[in-house]
Amino acid sequence: MSDETSELTYREAMREAIRDAMRRDDRVFLMGEDVGLYGGCFAVSLGLLEEFGPERIRDTPLSESAFVGAGIGAAIGGMRPIVEIMTVNFSLLALDQIMNNAATLLHMSGGQCNVPLVIRMTTGAGRQVAAQHSHSLEGWYAHIPGLRILVPSTVEDARTMLWPALEDPDPVLIFEHAGLYNSSAPVTAASGPVDIAHAVVRRPGADVSLIAYGGTLPTALTAAERLAAAGTDAEVVDLRTLRPLDDETIIGSVRRTHRAVIVDEGWRSGSISAEISARIMEQAFYDLDAPVERVCSAEVPMPYAKHLEDAALPGVDGVVAAVTRTRSGA
Amino acid sequence: MSTAPDREAALALLREMTRVRRFEERCVELYSAARIRGFVHLYIGEEAVAVGVLDAATADDDIVATYRDHGHALVRGVPANAIMAEMYGVSEGCSRGRGGSMHLFDVAHRFYGGNAIVAGGLPVAVGLGLARKMQGRGGVVVCFFGEGAVAEGEFHECMNLAELWQLPVLFCCENNLYAMGTALERSESETDIALKAASYEMPAWPVDGMDVVAVRDAARRAAESIRAGSGPHFLELRTYRFRAHSMYDPDRYRDKEEIERWKLRDPIAMFVEQYAIAPDDIDAIEREVAEEVDAAVAYAEAGTPESVADLTRFVTSETGRT
Known about the structure:
A: alpha/beta, 2 domains, globular, B: two-stranded antiparallel ribbon
């Protein structure tokens, strides 16, 4: 890797991460639906077939269970597969393999059978593609012991989290919010070892902690700007990993600001935001000056019409209103 | 290439079938005595399948089995001690007491487990085959599953993928006619299972699963073809379990006459008769096997329970990159 800084989109950053991993390690290959000739449903893998050939940029039939399971078997057999699933909704067809094999084999075999597999998939709404292509189920996956769940929200994380995920001896799921692919930022390629276990504070602040991840990070940052203009200094925590959850960073922030608003595109009931809220209660109850607030998706399958989809999603207005509630004591 | 085994080979086949039979008979006793708990699925009646197929496998080949896996593990060379200890749930078990009867693992023997999701092992076997092909390593992945698996989508996805990518997998369908309590003809519109595999362009043929030599010969032929680079092969091994599905199963769905009729085709008794095994040879094998099973029970009885402090070990790896 070079030390050059260049402006990349999130999509290009992920592509460069795959390219880099494949150049570094012969065992790494990419497989999934339309990753090769088509160039990837979201064009992440565009051009990689030409460089690496059809063995390592491997188009699969529409058989999520078989090719995810094949990724598991190939990982056990000494390869380092990156399996791409087109969207999180489709991953449900492979849930048996992810849950009953990838997450379970190590424990069930008494420590013998680790699964060094990376599964990437698109998550989230905002493109008017309705209720079978738009959900945010990463919180479900974060429920499962044995998986590591990464949610890169910045171009830099998109560029850098893949390699340490491939180095992990256990299965790692990477959730890429579809709304982020066109975002861009300058990235320095070689920036040393990358942490895939901790959250980071993206914007320091003193008055309230906005806890966000993936597709809700831009929402939280925009809300923080608007709040700043109105005199409220919001801190923004980017979770980066949903499993393990970085309690220290979350609780540390809440102890400083005494208020927390969690911004999560998942449905509220049984969500990762519920888990985070519970942990704040357990570990920082007496530091709180207001109840924890959550801004989540409406509990409805994602509708097609733009105004309905917008209304279903956590937005800047909702975050600002939630912060205002924590400040007013109402 | 059907060949009658010479005396040494015949005794070896008989010894392996007897090991599985006697080991499992002891499991029944131990289950009744509450030394073993959970689910226990017996292979009694089906021994010729694992013994015949695994005779065609080399130490470098990979094995994927189902929850009815005692026989496969034993024949593969997983020590009886470690298997029995696993059934006792102690730390000396081959899965350190984390798996039990249904999840025997021994990576050193390339035994990648008892998988207890019907058809769940097939994608893993396909992936092991993919790794072998991409690495140019040769060898065969032997994947066992029951006929119940053919009703699962994963079966069809894997038939297609393995054939499409020409992966070195030997699919071994143990057709014992019942998916737990559901008879094949009550659950499948097409009951010719080999035909289903053949419809994916895969070489596939039915085999008398009660005839260990027929199984061995078919497996050798298929494995040889796979090693020569002809892609996956499929064997439908027609067999029958003499016992209920599991220790919990009252076996109300099978006609007693049907069970008795199949018992006339007991793979061990038929083999002894067909190859005229001498009583002295049988006695010697029985003594040897009894010693092995006794030793396994003693080993398991003396086992040490895993410390509760270690409960959450092996959820994630303790070592770095492998």
